[in-house]
């Protein structure tokens, strides 16, 4: 193997490692943001869309 081919394969491996690292950091940031958003949600429950209402079903 010549030096160019060794350097080329090492460069490809380095690029893949950097891409995976950037992807991992982005996923971690998204996870932290999602957890923070869920924690900041109000504790009150949303009203049920029809429970407790009177429905007229006479034909």
Automatic annotation (TrEMBL):
<dbReference type="InterPro" id="IPR025906">
    <property type="entry name" value="YjfB_motility"/>
</dbReference>
<dbReference type="Pfam" id="PF14070">
    <property type="entry name" value="YjfB_motility"/>
</dbReference>
<protein>
    <submittedName>
        <fullName>Putative motility protein</fullName>
    </submittedName>
</protein>
């Amino acid at each position: 193997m010549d030096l160019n081919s060794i350097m080329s394969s090492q460069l490809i491996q380095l690029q893949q490692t950097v891409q995976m690292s950037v992807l991992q950091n982005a996923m971690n940031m998204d996870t932290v943001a999602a957890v923070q958003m869920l924690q900041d949600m109000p504790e009150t429950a949303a009203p049920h869309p029809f429970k407790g209402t009177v429905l007229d079903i006479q034909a």
